[in-house]
Specification:
Blueprint lengths: L5 E3 L1 H5 L2 E2 L2 E6 L2 E4 L11 H6 L6 H7 L3 H6 L4 E5 L23 H30 L1
Parallel strand pairs: 1-5
Antiparallel strand pairs: 2-3, 3-4, 4-5
Bound molecules: protoporphyrin IX containing FE.
Protoporphyrin IX containing FE binds next to helix 2, helix 3 and helix 4.
Protein name: Cytochrome b5 heme-binding domain-containing protein
Organism: Eucalyptus globulus (Tasmanian blue gum)
Subcellular location: Membrane
């Protein structure tokens, strides 16, 4: 098998996405795992779900053994044209809902919460002072 290093586009590899004809892209290389579908310890379903894309992350996430990696040579059919693989979809955090940029109301409330009791206290003293001297 293989070794000729033919270069495939992702579109070409993606055509092989059935249990009777299954190609994978792992680490820049293209593998025809059709004959391996039934023997794969992880099952054929996961292999199928990894078709049509760069399956490197899927493959690595499982933590495949070195013997698993050694088996890959048997399925090698060529290289992937890296420019046909869409750029890694990177996580963009959801936009924060517009956080009130004008902090004034919040600030005024805090100020009032502080001032109003003082005002009442002052008033009480004032009243007491005036009623006493009257
Ligand atoms: C040419 C490609 C692949 C080969 C040669 C391969 C080979 C193997 C081998 C030998 C095992 C047994 C455990 C080990 O030795 O690490 C295994 C397990 C497994 N593989 Fe793969 N694999 C390939 C691709 C994939 C891909 C693309 C996936 C997608 C997620 C996958 C998912 C799994 C899972 C989930 C297990 C664990 C099964 C279990 O422990 O119950 N494999 N594979």
């Amino acid at each position: 098998m293989g070794g000729e290093g033919k270069v495939y586009t992702l579109a070409q590899v993606s055509e092989h996405n059935t249990s009777k004809d299954c190609w994978l892209v792992i680490d820049g290389k293209v593998y025809d795992v059709t004959k391996f579908m039934e023997d794969h310890p992880g099952g054929d379903e996961v292999l199928l779900s990894s078709t049509g894309k760069d399956a490197t992350d899927d493959f690595e996430d499982v933590g495949h053994s070195s013997s698993a990696r050694a088996m890959m040579d048997d399925f090698y059919v060529g290289e992937i044209d890296a420019s046909t693989i869409p750029a890694r979809t990177k996580y963009t955090p959801p936009k924060q809902p517009q956080y009130n940029p004008d902090k004034t109301p919040e600030f005024v409330i805090k100020l009032l919460q502080f001032l109003v009791p003082l005002l009442i206290l002052g008033l009480a003293f004032g009243v007491r002072f005036y009623t006493k001297s009257a």
